[in-house]
Amino acid sequence: MTSKELARSAHHVVTHDYEHARVTAADGRQAGVGEFYGDPAVALIDVNEQWCVVAGEGLVLCGLGQAFGQCAAYFRAPGATVWVTDLRQTGPFALQWQGEDGTWSTLVFAPADVSAYAPGR
Question: What is the pTM of this model?
Answer without folding.
Answer: 0.90
